[in-house]
């Protein structure tokens, strides 16, 4: 039997029982020994209590989605068992805390985690009892766990190392005694490159700092808060400024003020806060002020689903304000892309002098993953064109014609009025029709500066294409690889540059009979936008608050490809 | 500047109080730049939306930087600009509708931070540009286009509100005395902290209060304003409170607290105190 390439462990219990820690510890250990680890969590919007679960997917090669079926379910209470047993795959195993006995049959066994940990000598080793059992179930040598313990705890004394070793052995023996196996895991191959274990939100924060961010102003909101927290701690130093605002209305206006005064500025929020920023984003567009707005999408309108995953803010992000506006829009598709998307967003804002929206999403923002360590020496940072001319009689024209003008900095020559009302070349308010025509065209023509032909493509000869966006890239790519392995003729396209789209990509998409767009919303928002651009696009939607599962996408793509081909034959 | 621009078609009504405020601000900006020997370009005027906000386009002589943003958000824009460049002299100009109704939520945060900006609030007790609706400072019972049967809300006492909010410099002025007003605005600019100069600036079209402000002995109309007495100590918060509640509007510096550091000073202190990691170190911390 072929060895396993990956397995998924889900930890389910009550908030505060350590299920997040357990999954992250597992992913971290796996990554440390050379596997690839990726966590996925969903939890209630409360601190303690409420049903919570986190899962870790461990694989021999990098993967970008939380995976399909659950191989091992660690259930810490009865509710957790009942709520998740349906997600178990074939031959899946349940490990339950011995404090309860699940009603049901199948591969399951109880373990008194805390008692076993105490017996090993330290109650804090309960996670290691779990890890020992898991290693046994997937036929992974406990040597890796032991090495991890030595590396991690040696400095803290032999007693803690011994306790952890005992815990691992106890867990492993208990699992071995059950005779259950979910298939042997391939041994790990440690990548040759350096890696970091990081979450999407942290990658966005680091990317922004790498791009030269000066000012960050934000208001706490799930799931974007970790960006604020990171900035408050790290964006400190001469000329730098991170601050918690009194509302998202204040956040957007304040980063516009900072951007106007010459700083690279950013805020991060989620749906409700993004809605509040609407008018301010329009102001940044109108007055041509560089700034970046990160929207870490959650689910639903209003308060919606604060801790779930959805991609339902595409429309809102593309045209967030009243009047004729269309935001430059970047949507990273992986934790790694979060870092580079953040750099790109700041570069774009300075390059075209206006607001840029970075669209992240909950599942990516809160996911821990090992990714290649970014090489800071290769980061390209773009600076603003600054006005250094004389003020006064020679006249400075901030908004002249259709071309970008260098921006003056308050305190230096080139005084003008940045204006949210329609204005002329020096920023004076005007109502002349020809001026509104010229200025509207000017604002849109600047988007040309952001057109870059950067995108992924594969099997381009197929008339049918799969083109996910944002976080659906991960499950989309896995589905694509499986479809190709089954010889389904479908092409692959992907870009994080959602607006303006790479012109050559758009050209290619227009040639296709059908472009399938997996996206986590009801309306099929990106597909709808692509149709408006002359692409025969159709959405594959899901709005359950969770990311796609690759196997579901495989089924739905096959169905739609089949239907399209039958239609083509009929015609 | 814009008065000479044929494209710019906004005009204040004849007799509008905002003319006097504009003149006073021009004097104050000149005094400030002369006193500190800095260029006019080191001043930034951040304007609200309404008749008053147009002041930023109507300033004559050498031009400061300007920002004419969106309704109610002068303070957040000023907050971002000031923290970006603490050496700038940031001045907010707004009306009672912009500053005290839609923009009200932004006053307390700036007061708590003691943001070092100077606000010039032009209070005419009415929404002029939208043609005469009631504002927070319109008196109870007054008939306006949006209160056709009389206003149902009590009027706000702005000075009392500023004092309660913790604003560290509170002055009250009158648009018909531009030279006196200029001194108050300049004092507000010099104040290290959050300064508000609240100005009675009548609307001749929708709420003409000149007679009440000046008084009319012939008609037996007593003026509703009085000069802050020479002996008043602006540091004395209780005395400021008594002035504000004297039944009439005091004109002059009502309150000044110079003991609180500004936000930019606190940030500077923090930067001197906190040791942060360079970006490479931050990234290394995530390495496996």
Q: What order do the helices and strands come in, and which of them pair?
A:
The complex is a heterodimer of chains A (571) and B (288).
Chain A: E1 6-14, H1 19-32, E2 36-42, E3 51-59, E4 70-75, H2 78-84, E5 88-97, E6 108-111, H3 113-120, H4 126-137, H5 143-153, H6 158-176, E7 195-199, H7 200-210, E8 215-218, H8 225-234, E9 241-244, H9 248-260, E10 265-269, H10 271-276, H11 278-287, E11 291-297, H12 314-318, E12 329-330, H13 335-352, E13 355-361, H14 362-365, E14 368-372, E15 417-419, H15 433-445, E16 456-458, E17 464-466, H16 473-485, E18 491-494, E19 497-499, H17 503-510, E20 514-519, H18 525-532, E21 537-541, H19 550-570
Chain B: H1 18-36, E1 43-47, H2 55-58, E2 65-68, H3 74-84, E3 89-95, H4 96-102, H5 107-113, E4 118-123, E5 126-127, E6 133-134, H6 158-165, E7 169-174, H7 178-190, E8 195-200, H8 210-214, E9 225-227, H9 237-244, E10 249-256, H10 263-273, H11 279-284
Parallel strand pairs in B: 1-2, 1-3, 3-4, 4-8, 7-8, 9-10
Antiparallel strand pairs in B: 5-6, 7-10
Helix pairs in contact in B: 1-7
């Amino acid at each position: 039997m072929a060895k396993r390439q990956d397995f998924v462990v889900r930890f389910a219990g009550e908030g505060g029982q350590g299920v997040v820690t357990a999954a992250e510890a597992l992913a971290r250990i796996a990554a440390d020994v050379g596997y690839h680890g990726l966590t996925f969590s969903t939890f209630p919007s409360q601190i303690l209590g409420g049903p919570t679960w986190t899962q870790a997917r461990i694989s021999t090669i990098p993967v970008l989605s939380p995976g399909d079926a659950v191989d091992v379910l660690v259930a810490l209470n009865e509710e957790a068992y009942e709520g998740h047993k349906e997600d178990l795959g074939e031959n899946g195993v349940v490990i339950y805390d011995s404090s309860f006995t699940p009603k049901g049959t199948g591969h399951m066994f109880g373990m008194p985690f805390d008692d076993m940990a105490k017996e090993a000598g330290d109650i804090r080793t309960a996670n290691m009892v779990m890890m020992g059992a898991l290693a046994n179930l997937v036929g992974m040598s406990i040597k890796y766990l032991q090495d991890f313990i030595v590396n991690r705890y040696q400095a803290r004394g032999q007693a803690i190392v011994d306790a952890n070793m005992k815990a691992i052995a106890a867990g492993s023996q208990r699992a071995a005694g059950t005779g259950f196996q979910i298939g042997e895991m391939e041994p790990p191959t440690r990548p040759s490159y350096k890696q970091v274990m990081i979450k999407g939100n942290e990658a966005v924060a680091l990317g922004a700092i790498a791009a030269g961010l000066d000012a960050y102003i934000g208001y706490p909101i799930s799931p974007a808060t970790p960006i604020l927290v990171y900035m408050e701690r790290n964006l400190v130093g001469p000329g730098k400024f991170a601050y918690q605002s009194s509302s998202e209305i204040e956040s957007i206006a304040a980063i516009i003020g900072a951007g106007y005064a010459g700083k690279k500025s950013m805020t991060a929020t989620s749906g409700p806060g993004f809605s509040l920023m609407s008018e301010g984003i329009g102001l940044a567009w109108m007055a041509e002020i560089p700034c970046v707005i990160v929207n870490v999408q959650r689910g639903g309108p209003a308060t919606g689903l604060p801790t779930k995953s959805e991609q339902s803010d595409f429309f809102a992000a593309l045209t967030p304000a009243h009047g004729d506006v269309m935001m430059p829009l970047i949507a990273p598709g992986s934790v790694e892309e979060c870092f580079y998307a953040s750099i790109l967003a700041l570069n774009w804002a300075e390059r075209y002098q206006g607001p840029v929206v970075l669209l992240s999403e909950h599942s990516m923002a809160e996911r821990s993953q090992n990714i290649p360590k970014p090489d800071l020496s290769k980061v390209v940072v773009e600076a603003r064109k600054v006005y250094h001319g004389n003020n006064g009689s020679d006249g400075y024209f901030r908004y002249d014609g259709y071309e970008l003008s260098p921006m003056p900095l308050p305190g230096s020559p080139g005084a003008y009025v940045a204006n949210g009302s329609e204005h002329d070349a020096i920023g004076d308010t005007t109502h002349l029709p020809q001026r509104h025509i010229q200025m509207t065209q000017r604002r849109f023509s600047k988007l040309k500066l952001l057109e870059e032909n950067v995108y992924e493509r594969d099997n381009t000869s197929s008339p049918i294409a799969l083109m996910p966006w944002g976080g659906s890239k991960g499950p989309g790519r896995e589905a694509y690889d499986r479809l190709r392995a089954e010889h389904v003729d479908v092409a692959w396209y992907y870009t994080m540059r959602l607006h303006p789209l790479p012109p050559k990509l758009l050209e290619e998409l227009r040639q296709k009979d059908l472009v399938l767009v997996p996206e986590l919303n009801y309306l099929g928002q990106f597909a709808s936008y692509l149709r408006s651009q002359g692409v025969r696009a159709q959405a594959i939607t899901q709005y359950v608050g969770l990311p796609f599962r690759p196997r579901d996408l495989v089924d739905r793509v096959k169905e739609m490809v089949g239907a399209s081909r039958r239609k083509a034959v009929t015609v | 500047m814009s008065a000479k621009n044929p494209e710019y078609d906004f005009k204040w009504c004849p007799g509008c109080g905002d003319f006097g405020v504009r003149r006073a601000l021009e004097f104050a900006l000149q005094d400030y730049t002369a006193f500190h020997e800095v260029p006019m370009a080191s001043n930034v005027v951040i304007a609200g939306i309404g008749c008053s906000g147009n002041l930023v386009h109507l300033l004559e002589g050498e031009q400061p930087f300007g920002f004419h943003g969106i309704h109610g958000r002068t303070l957040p824009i000023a907050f971002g600009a000031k923290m970006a460049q603490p050496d700038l002299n940031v001045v907010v100009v707004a009306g009672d509708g912009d500053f005290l109704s839609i923009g009200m939520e932004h006053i307390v945060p700036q007061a708590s931070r003691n943001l070092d900006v100077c606000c010039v609030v032009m209070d005419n007790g009415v929404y002029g540009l939208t043609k005469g609706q009631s504002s927070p400072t319109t008196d109870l019972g007054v008939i306006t286009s949006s209160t056709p049967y009389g206003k149902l809300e009590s009027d706000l006492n702005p000075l009392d509100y500023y004092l309660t909010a913790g604003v560290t410099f509170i002055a009250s002025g009158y648009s018909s005395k531009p030279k006196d007003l200029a001194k108050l605005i300049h004092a507000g600019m010099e104040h290290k902290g959050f300064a508000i100069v609240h100005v009675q600036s009548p609307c001749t079209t929708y709420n003409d209060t000149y007679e009440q402000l000046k008084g009319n002995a012939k008609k037996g109309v007593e003026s509703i304003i009085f000069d802050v007495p020479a002996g008043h100590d602006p540091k004395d918060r209780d005395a400021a409170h008594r002035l504000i509640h004297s039944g009439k509007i005091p004109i002059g510096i009502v309150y000044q607290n110079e003991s609180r550091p500004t936000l930019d000073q606190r940030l500077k202190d923090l930067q001197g105190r906190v040791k942060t990691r360079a970006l490479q170190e931050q990234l290394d911390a995530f390495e496996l």
